[in-house]
Every structure is written in structure tokens, then in C-alpha cells.
Specification:
This protein is an alpha/beta fold. It folds into 2 domains: about 1-35 and about 170-205, no CATH class; about 45-165, 3-Layer(aba) Sandwich (Glutaredoxin), CATH 3.40.30. Helices cover about 45% and strands about 25% of the residues. The chain has helices at about 1-35, 50-55, 70-85, 100-110, 145-155, 165-170, 170-180; strands at about 45, 60-65, 90-95, 120, 120-125, 130-135, 135-145, 180-195, 195-205. The strands form 3 sheets. It has a 5-stranded mixed beta sheet. Strands 4-5 form a two-stranded antiparallel ribbon. Strand 2, helix 3 (about 70-85) and strand 3 form a beta-alpha-beta unit. Helix 1 packs across helix 7 and helix 3 (about 70-85) crosses helix 5. The longest helix has about 35 residues, at about 1-35.
Length: about 210
């Protein structure tokens, strides 16, 4: 009698875990579908006039300061595009080579990541520099190729992307499938036994662009 009761409790516990897992997966799918209105162009080239308009808005604007001859910029953009495609957001790209001296100096002096940069005594904007602005003020700015994780963390830490566990675990998996990314493997096992309890393991491996 005692063994039967223990066995029944074990099965009930396993069933609860499975139900919780199914609910979590359904929630993840719903979130993905709600964010599935895809934007065609995730990195939009802008000029200085459009830049001035964006930074004055009462909303977050993500801007890349880049140069066509910058190899680090070319390496960085695929990571940015990958994150933007997954999260359905737009980043604006400003080519600093198109700026006149006054425009260049205004941008150089506005951001903490650029204001102290000088080469041979001349002001310099390091590229790529990622800036987030709102109401003509810097939210954050950082120079260099941040990579996939760095760019994603930058958006998360500054409130562009919600700090949901699903965004960092299930959503990258689901969106990778949706965007033809490479998902190496999904393994889900449920085992149970009398007196042995249960185990519930999910392993997700995701490949991001190199």
C-alpha cells in the first residue's frame, strides 16, 4: 500500500512538471507571435538631418556611428542585424564620413564614448560606436564591436528589451527557427521511477553568426 502511494505521488509530481513545461512553452510561443510583425530593414542608413530628428524624440533611438572603411563596423553589423531581426527593432546607421566639421564636432562632444578621443591632437570618433539617445540626451554610448551578446546585453540593461527569461532562453530558440538560424539540438527527457524521483532536462544549443 505504501509503495503504491509513493508511486502515485511520483507520477503526480512528474505530471505537474510536464504541465508547467507545456505552459511555459505555450507562453513562449504566444510572446513570439505577438512580436512577429517583422520589420524589413533592421539597420537603416540615415543622414545628419534624420539623426537630429531621432535624438530629439521622447523615445529611445539606437544609432550606430560607422565608417565604410571600418573593418570592425563590417564585422559588427551582422551581430546587430541578427539581434534586431530576432527582437524586431530598428537601428539607425550614421556614416561619419558624410558629416561636415560642425556636425562631426557636435557628435564628438555629445557622447561620453567619443568626447575624450583625439588622434594627434585632432578630435576622433571611434567606429563603430553604439549610442542610445532620448530627448537630446545620451542614455549610453560605447565604442567597439560588442558582438552578439554585448549588443543584446546593452539593449537589455537599458530597457530596450524586457528582462524576460523567455527572451534569453526560449525566444532565441524559437526566433532562430523562424529566421532560419541554426539550432544545434533540443533534447527533452522525462524519467521517473519508484523511489527514484524524477528528472527533467532541457538542453538548448544555439549557433549565432561568427
Amino acid at each position: 500500500m505504501r509503495n503504491k502511494k509513493k508511486k502515485k505521488n511520483n507520477y503526480q509530481l512528474v505530471n505537474i512538471i510536464i504541465i508547467i513545461g507545456i505552459i511555459f512553452l505555450i507562453t513562449s510561443l504566444v510572446i513570439m507571435l505577438l512580436n512577429n510583425k517583422k520589420i524589413d530593414n533592421h539597420i537603416v542608413d540615415i543622414n545628419y538631418e534624420k539623426y537630429s530628428e531621432l535624438i530629439s524624440k521622447d523615445e529611445y533611438s539606437i544609432i550606430l556611428l560607422t565608417s565604410p572603411t571600418c573593418t570592425h563596423c563590417k564585422d559588427y553589423k551582422p551581430y546587430v542585424n541578427y539581434v534586431c531581426d530576432d527582437k524586431n527593432i530598428v537601428v539607425y546607421n550614421l556614416n561619419i564620413n558624410d558629416l561636415n566639421y560642425e556636425e562631426y564636432m557636435e557628435i564628438h562632444d555629445m557622447y561620453s564614448a567619443t568626447v575624450d578621443n583625439y588622434i594627434n591632437g585632432n578630435p576622433s570618433i571611434l567606429t563603430p560606436t553604439t549610442v542610445i539617445t532620448r530627448n537630446n540626451e545620451e542614455v549610453v554610448s560605447i565604442s567597439g564591436n560588442l558582438g552578439y551578446s554585448g549588443f543584446l546585453d546593452l539593449l537589455t540593461q537599458n530597457g530596450i528589451i524586457k528582462k524576460w527569461f523567455v527572451n534569453h532562453f526560449f525566444y532565441p530558440l524559437l526566433s532562430s527557427v523562424d529566421s532560419c538560424g541554426v539550432v544545434c539540438g533540443v533534447v527533452c527527457g522525462v524519467t521517473s521511477g519508484v523511489g527514484a524521483g524524477f528528472s527533467f532536462t532541457i538542453i538548448v544549443l544555439e549557433t549565432v553568426p561568427e
